[in-house]
């Protein structure tokens, strides 16, 4: 509770409903994050993606106090209670990231249903990000679910707009789905698939469906900027450490070794959640 002395008004959290949804979405993000971790680790391993979690090393079933998102990792000091083997940083990183992303959605969203849908899309994108970092491939079932969810959303919207607007709406959605992945598709064609995987193209098709042409291209462009800054940083630091300390090897090259989806997704989230307008910013600088 906060008392404004100048106006003598008592402000409480009840007057800021967005703080409620920020908190509730944040907690929801922690819980979904811990399920997403399990899903990512079991995807394509032949193990069931449901059921109770166990230690990856000794198989010890985790009790409820081992399953508190983020907190458990630090209470256990990153080690299994039974066998003491190292628990991946992925667990708490994914949980904390999803809590922050969900909380941001809760803060900005106008309607609860819209917020839940956004949270669903973000969950799929976090799964793609972590899977791509681990295996440098985008799992088809997840990216197809992303695209299908967006198509379902557009079909739902079609029922609520006037009949005269239906055709232009469909035209817009289809055009966005074609134009936004075009830059990556051309790169893929020119480099004969060496520059990036086809999964990245499917991903940006989804960006087009979610954001439209302008914001979709803006997200892809941002992804390229973030990717080149971090990519060049990684390669330079590797080269320097190889050159000056003869340590490590020049193992990472720009082409297939660095997963590209995380950068594209970072660009997408900046536009989708925070409304970042990189093209507008560039125009205001140059004009
Ligand atoms: Zn263990």
Would you write up a description of this structure?
The chain has helices spanning 17-42, 71-75, 90-108, 112-135, 140-158, 163-179, 182-190, 198-245, 261-272, 278-286, and strands at 2-4, 9-11. By secondary structure, the chain is an all-alpha fold. The protein has two domains: 1-108, no CATH class; 112-287, no CATH class. Strands 1-2 form a two-stranded antiparallel sheet. It starts with a strand and ends with a helix.
Summarize the biggest pleated sheet: 2 strands, antiparallel
What series of H and E elements makes up the topology?
EEHHHHHHHHHH
Low-confidence stretches: none
Radius of gyration: 22 Å
In helices, the fraction of residues equals 55-70%
Q: How many H/I helical runs?
A: 10
| Structure classification | mainly alpha
- Number of individual domains: 2
Overall pLDDT: 86
Brief descriptors of the model:
single chain, 287 residues, mainly alpha, 2 domains, two-stranded antiparallel sheet, 10 helices, 2% strand, binds zinc ion
Q: Which helices and strands, and how do they pair?
A:
Elements: E1 2-4, E2 9-11, H1 17-42, H2 71-75, H3 90-108, H4 112-135, H5 140-158, H6 163-179, H7 182-190, H8 198-245, H9 261-272, H10 278-286
Antiparallel strand pairs: 1-2
Helix pairs in contact: 1-3, 1-4, 3-4, 4-5, 4-9, 5-8, 6-8, 7-8, 8-9
The structure holds zinc ion (ZN).
Compact overview of the structure:
By secondary structure, the protein is an all-alpha fold.
């Amino acid at each position: 509770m906060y008392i404004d002395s100048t106006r003598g008004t008592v402000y409480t959290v009840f007057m800021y409903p967005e703080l409620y949804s920020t908190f509730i979405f944040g907690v929801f993000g922690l819980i979904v994050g811990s399920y997403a971790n399990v899903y990512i680790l079991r995807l394509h391993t032949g193990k069931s993606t449901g059921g109770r979690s166990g230690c990856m090393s000794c198989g010890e079933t985790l009790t409820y106090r081992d399953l508190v998102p983020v907190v458990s990792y630090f209470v256990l000091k990153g080690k299994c209670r039974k066998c003491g083997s190292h628990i991946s940083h992925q667990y708490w990183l994914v949980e904390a990231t999803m809590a922050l992303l969900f909380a941001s959605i809760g803060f900005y969203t106008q309607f609860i249903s819209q917020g839940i849908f956004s949270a669903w899309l973000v969950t799929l994108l976090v799964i793609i990000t972590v899977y791509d970092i681990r295996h440098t491939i985008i799992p088809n079932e997840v990216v197809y679910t992303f695209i299908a969810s967006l198509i379902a959303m557009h079909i739902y919207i079609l029922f609520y707009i006037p009949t005269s607007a239906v055709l232009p709406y469909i035209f817009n959605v289809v055009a966005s789905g074609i134009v936004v992945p075009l830059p990556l598709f051309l790169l893929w064609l020119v480099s004969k698939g060496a520059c990036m995987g086809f999964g990245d193209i499917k991903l940006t098709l989804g960006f087009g469906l979610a954001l439209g042409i302008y914001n979709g291209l803006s997200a892809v462009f941002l992804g390229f900027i973030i990717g080149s800054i971090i990519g060049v940083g990684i390669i330079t630091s590797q080269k320097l450490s190889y050159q000056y300390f003869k340590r490590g090897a020049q193992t990472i090259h720009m082409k297939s070794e660095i997963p590209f989806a995380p950068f594209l997704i970072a660009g997408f989230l900046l536009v989708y959640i925070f409304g970042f307008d990189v093209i507008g910013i560039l125009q205001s600088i140059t004009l």
